[in-house]
Amino acid sequence: MAFRAVASAFDGGGAKPTSIVVTKPTGVAENDGMVGLLILHHAGEALPTVTPPAGWTLVETFQSNGGATSGGEYFLYTKSAGSSEPANYTWSIDSEVSGMGGVILAYTSIDINKGTDGFDVDASSSDISTADNFDAPSITTTAKRDQLICIFVGDQDTDYSQVELDASEPSGMTARIATLSDTVCAVVIADVIASAEGATGVKNFTFLDTKSTPATASIALFNLGRASKKLVTPII
Q1: What is the pTM for the complete model shown?
Q2: How far is residue 184's CA from residue 41's CA, in Å, rounded to a whole number?
């Protein structure tokens, strides 16, 4: 199991978007597992209905502070890559929001068809202008060598454009994206292959200084595993 690539796109600050187009991550091959995060920033607009790209399955939705009335709404999707994937993927919504973002991570040897081996979210009730540590929750897995992915996503704030994102991923994990769109959100996503089944433990994101209304999430995906060896009975 290995990380393949990540791709992202953000749209906000101008005309209110109704879609976001994310390029296919570099090198995606048949049977790769892809994880997509759709980000909606809304400031009083009604929460729209989302139409994902063909073949993508909604796994979970979660919110940051404010939720359905004002703040961030996040949608987590998965897809198993086919033999011929498009050059990009488009998520559409049926009404305008203040900003949209999308992130796709691609991995080899993830068994998307088995679903998830655990998911949990922590939606904060306060902004992080006075805090610098946020935990992605512990989840309990049932299989060895799961791909554990932890997400920090902070909704856009009025002071956001004045603040530089300076974040550290959880200890022992590898950051795959750490980016700030001052009109949409801040996103930090890190991963690690879990060495054993059971509780993963909380994973701490550390910031020097930023400001938003954040949420964190943890998701575990099954490893495809090794093909079993066929037992051959010798002919005597």
Answers
A1: 0.87
A2: 6
